[in-house]
Structures are given as C-alpha cells and as structure tokens.
Design brief:
Largest sheet: 7 strands, parallel
Structural class: alpha/beta
Helix content: 40-55%
InterPro entries: LRR_dom_sf, RanGap
Radius of gyration: 24 Å
Number of strands: 7
GO cellular component, one term: nucleus
Keywords: GTPase activation, Leucine-rich repeat, Repeat
Distance between the termini: 76 Å
Order of helices and strands: EHEHEHEHEHEHHEHHHHHH
GO molecular function: GTPase activator activity; small GTPase binding
Strand content: 5-15%
Number of helices: 13
Strand order of the largest sheet: 1-2-3-4-5-6-7
C-alpha cells in the first residue's frame, strides 16, 4: 500500500508494552517511505516517551508530502514533551497546512512561540484544551506580531484569562496609533475572539483596511482626527503633501468598514474643516 495511502487515521490504539518500541519503529518507517501520504491523525494514542515522539516527528518531517498533522491527546501523560514536538515541526522548514496539538497538556510554550515568530510555513494551528495561561498568551501574541503566514489560530478551553486575551487582541488590533495598527497582525484569524478585523474569511488587505478605518471612525466621534494626525504625521510642509492621500484612503478603507463605523463622508468633512486644508491651498 506504500505510495497509495493518503491518510493514516489511528485513534485510541494501545500498543503492547514489550513491543511498543518496535511498533513505533515500524510505523515511523512506513510514514517516512509513503510519499503519497498527505494526512496523519494520531488521536488519543498516548506516546510513551520522548524517544518515540522524536521518532514519529522525524518521520513526519522526512516525508515532505504530509501537510496535515493532527496529534490530539497523546502528549499529556508520563512527561512526554508535546511543546518540543510542536516546535520541531515548526522549525523543520517544512510547509504545513494544519498542525493540531489540542488536548496535549501543553504548558510553557516559549520555544513554540519563538518558532511561530520566525514565520514558519504553517497555515493553521490548533492548541485547544491545553493548559496555556496568560504568560503563554502573551508569548503567542508577540509571535503573532511578527508572523505574516499563519491564517488561523484556535486557543479555546485553556487557562487564559481576560488579561491574556487582551494581549492577543492587541496583537490583532492596537488602536493606540496609526503605526500601532499598521504593525498588527493582519493575516491570522483567532477563533472566538471579538476584536476589530478578526472576521473569518477576510483577506489581509480587508483586515488592515477595516482596522485603519475603525481607528479613524473612533477618533471622529470626538472630532480628534486632526489632532492625532498632526501628532503622528507632523505639521511641516511635507505633511501637506499627504493630505490628498489621506482623504483618498478614507474612501478606500471604507469599502471594508464595520457596520457600526462612521460614514466616510462624515470623516472626510471633519478633516476638511480641521486638518491642514488652509495650508494646502496656500501651497497651491
């Protein structure tokens, strides 16, 4: 069957104790040789030691055809290090569509978060039902700010409190300044997190546009756009050249605005009244 098998689904398998090492060697060898294999489901099969985990992970790295790996509830007993396995996959240089490491008792994701920050070729990462805490959330949030490839992240049913989720929200949308918004992650959808530009199925450009427009819309509520833009862009002669571009961007960004945002005409009118328009006409 080698070369023909596209998926290996192994759930709740109990290997006999005396033969467990040999069983893992056989499975790893088969995975490594089967270059038609695209997906591995390894669910509720408790990996007995880091040696067996390393053997299995190495076979998945060697077989470059595999793009979808789901290893759920298999690293959370006997001290087997699921974070090390996840990090090995992310730092292998291999492209993956999906890595699912849910229900593995993951805790202390320093190395995995550092790997995520290096922009691995990974589209979806599932880390549900682990023991991730606020510190882990902060590390992941910092990694997201540097990652432009990951498209979906799930962190449901962990030990993350509102403090940790706020760190994650800020990585997705930080309204403290235009530069802060620009530096946010516009690529990744984080599941079950209510924050601007985090709707499933949006393109990175749509996410960025919606966030920038939301910032302008929020400032418009108290008429402070001109004050903020003066602080962020300056008030010298070079800034005047940006005025037409900013006004054009209002219309551009509004195509992806949230339903509760101000109208583009209203924001444009505010800026025409308050921001460098007299100076603009003096120049011309």
């Amino acid at each position: 069957m080698e070369g023909r098998l596209k998926s290996i689904d192994m759930c709740r398998v109990r290997f006999p104790g005396p033969d467990v090492v040999e069983c893992y060697e056989i499975i790893a060898a088969s995975i490594g040789r089967n270059h038609g294999l695209e997906r591995l489901l390894w669910i509720s099969n408790q990996i007995p030691s880091d040696d067996q985990a390393d053997l299995l992970i190495e076979s998945l790295i060697v077989n470059r055809a595999i793009k979808d790996i789901r290893m759920e509830n298999c690293f959370n007993q006997d001290g087997v290090n699921g974070c090390r396995a996840l990090t090995s996959l992310m730092t292998s240089g291999r492209p993956f569509q999906e890595l699912d490491f849910s229900d593995n008792g993951l805790l202390g994701v320093d190395d995995a978060a550092a790997a995520l920050a290096t922009n691995p070729q990974l589209e979806k990462l599932f880390m549900n039902e682990n023991q991730l805490n606020d510190r882990d959330a902060e590390l992941i949030a910092e990694a997201l700010k540097r990652n432009t490839i990951l498209q979906e992240l799930t962190l449901d049913d962990n030990s993350i409190t509102s403090t940790g989720f706020q760190k994650l929200r800020t990585a997705i949308y930080d309204p403290s300044s235009l530069n802060a918004v620009e530096s946010c992650n516009h690529t990744c959808y984080v599941d079950h997190m209510d924050v601007e530009g985090n709707d499933y199925g949006m393109t990175p450009r749509q996410r960025r546009n919606q966030k920038l427009y939301k910032l302008l819309s929020t400032r418009h509520l108290d008429g402070s756009n001109a004050r903020h833009l003066n602080g962020e862009l300056g008030e010298d002669k070079y800034t005047i050249k940006l005025v037409p571009k900013v006004l054009h961007c209002i219309k551009l960004y509004s195509s992806d605005k949230a339903t509760d945002s101000s109208s583009p005409l209203s924001i444009t009118f505010e800026l025409i009244k308050t921001w460098m328009i007299p100076e603009l006409f003096e120049v011309h």
